[in-house]
């Protein structure tokens, strides 16, 4: 029985190109009580590997969080397989708007302590006691209400390139940080204000809404399916789009354009730009916003220091990195003093 990925990303890329079939980028999550995540993990891997599903999936006692790429022709088989698992029957699937056949190149199903690294202790509250789920139309009405406080539950580098108009975008590096900031800011308004929140696909709000209810907030709402589902509904139902800019996504596309507005700036020269990149220096990999001109001038690096290292022969770079441990700034801080135009 083959329970793990065996192909390299390069080999997979070649296979996808040769197959020439369209793939769908899909995400879904579900909080549930899972007795033995390892058994579920193996079950999913075996079934999905056969369907040529790729992606990054976390399974934990508290549920499942999955980001996948599924061949379009296998979608129905994939869907019926999900429906055959009782707690995943009719789970809402977020389907990415932009087609990308190479959004994922491996199938990785991992057992974790949590499905989202949220820094919260599960025992303190009931995560199933969540806020009111609202669709795009109701959300549009709610966020124009003067009694509404709209909060972006994502991290600074995500809201920087795109967010809903009128949203509070906490300048935080982690989900845990934003929970505390919001609670403190709204301490006087737990009963009279409507706390409306959103995130990428809804999973963070699922927990945040339960958390705020536990903390005494009376009117807690969350955008069902997050920005991804909102955009789908806005297009399908011809509603007004109130999201400005790009939706940051956690695959190699980095961002999905929702409106033509460019609300952020190149971190190196300050001109309007909303393209996230990772510093080309392998030892740095800082996530930041860089325009094409700066990318050319800086050899895709975040600083002249990284540029110099990046220009060294690979073996020398490797020797420099030795003993320093792998830097993992991807999707993390996205902050550095070398970036002149990053707050
Ligand atoms: Zn620039
Ligand atoms: Zn760098």
UniProtKB/TrEMBL annotation:
Occurrences of domain Rhodanese (ranges): 144-239
Name assigned to this protein: tRNA uridine(34) hydroxylase
CDD domains according to UniProt: RHOD_YceA
Organism, scientific name: Flagellimonas marina
Catalytic reaction equation(s): uridine(34) in tRNA + AH2 + O2 = 5-hydroxyuridine(34) in tRNA + A + H2O
Originating gene: trhO
InterPro entries per record: Rhodanese-like_dom, Rhodanese-like_dom_sf, Rhodanese_C, TrhO, TRHO_N
Protein EC: 1.14.-.-
Top-rank taxon: Bacteria
Sorted UniProt keywords: Oxidoreductase, tRNA processing
Residues of the signal peptide: none
Gene3D superfamilies assigned to the protein according to its UniProt record, in alphabetical order: 3.30.70.100, Rhodanese-like domain
Phylogenetic classification of the source organism: Bacteria, Pseudomonadati, Bacteroidota, Flavobacteriia, Flavobacteriales
Assigned protein family: Belongs to the TrhO family.
Function, as annotated: Catalyzes oxygen-dependent 5-hydroxyuridine (ho5U) modification at position 34 in tRNAs, the first step in 5-carboxymethoxyuridine (cmo5U) biosynthesis. May be part of an alternate pathway, which is able to bypass cmo5U biogenesis in a subset of tRNAs under aerobic conditions.
């Amino acid at each position: 029985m083959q329970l793990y990925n065996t192909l390299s990303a390069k080999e997979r890329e070649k296979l996808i190109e040769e197959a020439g079939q369209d793939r769908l980028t899909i995400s879904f999550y579900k909080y549930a009580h899972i007795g033995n995540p390892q058994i579920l993990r193996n079950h999913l891997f075996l079934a999905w590997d056969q369907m040529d599903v790729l992606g990054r999936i976390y399974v934990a006692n508290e549920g499942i969080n999955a980001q996948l790429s599924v061949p379009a022709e296998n979608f129905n088989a994939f869907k019926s397989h999900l429906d055959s698992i009782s707690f995943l029957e009719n789970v809402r699937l977020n389907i990415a708007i932009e087609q990308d056949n190479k959004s994922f190149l491996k199938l990785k199903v991992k057992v974790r302590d949590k499905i989202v690294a949220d820094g919260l202790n599960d025992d303190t509250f009931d995560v199933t006691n969540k806020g009111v789920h609202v669709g795009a139309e109701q959300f549009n009405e709610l966020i124009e209400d003067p009694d509404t406080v709209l909060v972006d539950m994502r991290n600074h580098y995500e809201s920087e390139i795109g967010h809903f108009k009128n949203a509070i975008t906490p300048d935080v590096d982690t989900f845990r940080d934003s929970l505390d900031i919001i609670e403190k800011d709204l301490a006087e308004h737990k009963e009279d204000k409507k706390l409306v929140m959103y995130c990428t696909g809804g999973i963070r709000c699922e927990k945040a809404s339960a958390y705020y209810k536990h903390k005494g907030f009376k009117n807690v709402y969350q955008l069902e399916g997050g920005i991804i589902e909102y955009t789908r509904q806005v297009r399908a139902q011809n509603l007004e789009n109130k999201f400005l800019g790009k939706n940051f996504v956690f695959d190699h596309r980095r961002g999905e354009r929702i409106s033509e507005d460019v609300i952020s700036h190149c971190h190196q020269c300050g001109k309007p730009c909303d393209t996230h990149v990772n510093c080309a220096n392998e030892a740095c990999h800082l996530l930041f916003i860089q325009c094409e001109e700066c990318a050319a001038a800086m050899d895709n690096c975040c600083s002249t220091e990284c540029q110099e290292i990046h220009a060294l022969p690979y073996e020398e770079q490797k020797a420099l990195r030795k003993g320093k441990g792998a830097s993992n700034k991807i999707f993390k801080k996205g902050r550095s003093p070398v970036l002149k135009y990053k707050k």
